[in-house]
Write a structure and sequence with these properties.
alpha+beta; 7-stranded antiparallel beta sheet; two-stranded antiparallel ribbon; 19 helices
Length: about 450
């Protein structure tokens, strides 16, 4: 009974996340907005300042997809080159360490990133070793903006200023640089980009990078709520390094003398990844809902065949085989969804991962699935009560999924979360393991397994 009470409390705990949201938002004293607020990128320059600026080249470096998950989305860096010395320094806002309680802070949504200054050539050499595509664009900025940009970067790498609170879409290696460049063109980049709507959401943009890995794609879609499904502008999409680069290539701004000038003067490719080295990033939105549904439907049909048809055979060997296969299949998927739903409850209730708040998926899955996985095993060993409870729980969950689907269809402009991939994955599994008497339905059409030629 105690276990049941604890699981029920864990199941209902996401409701508390609704009342705690927005109090759970952390204020970062080192956010781009706060650090750049009082910086003056436009001041009177004398001959010495202009000469110093002429010897500085400011570039944006964009690195393509890497192999570990955390570099699937690419990387951005600002490069400052002293043309007199021929030395280039990369200012990198994507530095983190797996030490210092990394996993704990990541789980809580309070992960700290740092900005470092390193040798640009060394970083390019490393990218070549990793066989990642690397490009560099040169930025055309006023003399005062160049000087102040370098001053700000050197201020930002000081030990007392070099840490910031990471956010997947709002504060990362790309958005920090976006904000600096926007300040250097007097806010004209943001004004232009926010007036440029996109026909994709943040979820769509993420899926471009994850569609080639169905498990990762499904997991990320499950954990993230409708907060990433609203229409966005080009400004918001610049959390992706390649989007930032493409936007800057198109952008023009009004200079101090009133003339309209392009921000980028040239682009060069430093390295191109070998063809076939890793799956390419999709160029158009990719729907993985149908493949997920078909895979779930196949698994559901296999569950019906082994759990209802083979298990009713008059041959003991066939019955044993059917129950064993059914037990393995059902235990695995219920435990897997149970673990994910427990993680979702934790992220909604305890963590600062705001992209998980108000997640509709907790309405159609819960930590109770972990108990259901145990009921499956007990049912295999002859506990008919556990088996009935398991099927009853699946029936309730199937009704919950169908009900949510109907409500979403009616209130499509309110329940905007794009979780049809999740809905159409769970529904066949719930139905296949529900209280529906499939063995009686099958026998009615004379498809009983023991009538075949075994």
């Amino acid at each position: 009974m105690t276990l049941i009470i604890l699981v029920v409390l864990a199941t209902l705990s996401p409701l508390a996340a609704i009342s705690f949201y927005p109090e759970m938002q952390l204020e970062d004293p080192f956010s781009s907005t706060l650090l750049l607020e009082d910086r003056d990128f436009f001041f009177e320059t004398d001959v010495a300042y202009r000469a110093a600026a002429d010897n500085l080249q400011i570039s944006l470096t964009t690195m393509g997809k890497g192999d570990p998950l955390y570099v699937w989305f690419g990387h951005s860096g600002l490069v400052v080159t002293d043309l007199r010395l021929g030395r280039s320094v990369m200012y990198d806002y994507g530095i983190f360490s797996f030490d210092d309680d990394f996993y704990q802070t990541f789980a809580l949504g309070r992960l700290s990133y740092e900005v470092w200054a390193t040798s640009a050539q060394a970083r390019y050499d490393l990218a070549r070793e990793e066989d990642r595509t690397v490009s560099e664009i040169t930025l055309n900025l006023p003399a005062s903006a160049k000087i102040e940009l370098v001053n700000f970067l050197n201020y930002n790498i000081a030990p007392e200023n070099n840490t910031y609170l990471y956010h997947h879409y709002d504060e990362n290696c790309s958005t920090r640089i976006r904000d600096i460049i926007d300040k250097a063109v007097d806010g004209q980049l943001k004004a232009w980009a926010t007036e440029t709507p996109l026909d994709m959401t943040i979820r769509d943009l993420v899926t471009l990078h994850t569609a080639n890995s169905p498990f990762i794609d499904w997991t990320l879609n499950y954990l993230q709520s409708g907060s990433i499904d609203h229409p966005i502008s080009l400004w918001e999409a610049m959390f992706l390094p390649e989007v930032l680069e493409r936007a800057l290539l198109e952008f023009t701004y009004t200079s101090l003398d009133g003339s309209v000038v392009p921000l980028v003067t040239d682009r060069r490719i430093i390295h191109t990844a070998s063809e076939g080295r890793r799956p390419p990033v999709a160029q158009q939105p990719v729907s993985v809902t149908l493949p997920a549904f078909l895979a779930s439907l196949g698994l559901a049909l296999l569950s019906i065949f082994t759990g209802h048809i083979l298990s009713e055979s008059r041959f003991k060997t066939i019955r044993t085989l059917g129950k064993s296969v059914y037990g393995v299949i059902t235990t695995v998927w219920t435990a897997a969804i149970g673990i994910l739903s427990t993680l979702l409850v934790f992220m909604m209730f305890v963590s600062n991962h705001d992209v998980t708040y108000f997640n509709e998926n907790f309405l159609i899955s819960s930590p109770w699935l972990l108990v259901m996985s145990v009921q499956v095993l007990r049912g295999l060993f002859g506990n008919t009560v556990s088996e009935r409870r398991f099927r009853r729980a699946n029936t309730i969950l199937a009704v919950a999924v169908i009900s949510l689907s109907i409500v979403k269809a009616v209130l499509y402009d309110v329940l905007i979360q794009d979780n049809w991939q999740i809905i159409l994955t769970l529904l066949p599994l719930y139905l296949a393991n529900s209280s529906i008497p499939f063995e009686k339905l099958v026998s009615r059409f004379s498809f009983r397994a023991d009538d075949s030629d075994w």
